[in-house]
Specification:
single chain, Elongation Factor Tu (Ef-tu), domain 3, three-stranded antiparallel β-sheet, DUF4183
């Protein structure tokens, strides 16, 4: 028998399932926030889709999540806000009103949308 190169035959298929969880939190401002000012909204000041008080703002899954901030229905740039997950006294959203812009006036709706993606993968290997 002649010399042969012996090698393994390996076949693999991976199936990944992505399950999104989207939470929306609402707040209506009670006072004006001037340019260069910071509006900080505690977790307990938000209410949910059913109008119930929020107990805790959810964690963001590392590398698999994001949040959107809407002020008066307009999507905002990411760098004007800071999101901190957690319960009352810990969890909050802080919004810095940039210099040279208009104030956030009293009774302005604020919407915080949080999207987390849970993934599971299964790999089948055939040799």
């Amino acid at each position: 028998m002649a010399l042969q190169l012996m090698k393994l035959f390996v076949s693999a298929t991976t199936e990944t399932e992505v399950t999104p969880t989207v939470d929306k939190f609402f707040y209506v401002t009670v006072a004006d926030t001037a340019p260069e000012g910071t509006l900080t909204i505690d977790a307990a000041d938000f209410f949910d889709d059913l109008g119930a008080e929020v107990v805790e703002l959810p964690e963001l899954i590392a590398n698999n999540s994001y949040y959107n901030l809407y002020i008066n229905g307009v999507l905002q740039m990411q760098d004007i806000s800071t999101y901190t997950p957690g319960a009352t006294g810990v969890g909050s959203l802080s919004i810095v009103v940039p210099t040279g812009t208009d104030s956030i006036v009293a009774e302005t709706p604020i919407v915080l949308e949080i999207a987390n993606f849970d993934t599971t993968s299964t790999t089948d290997i055939t040799t």
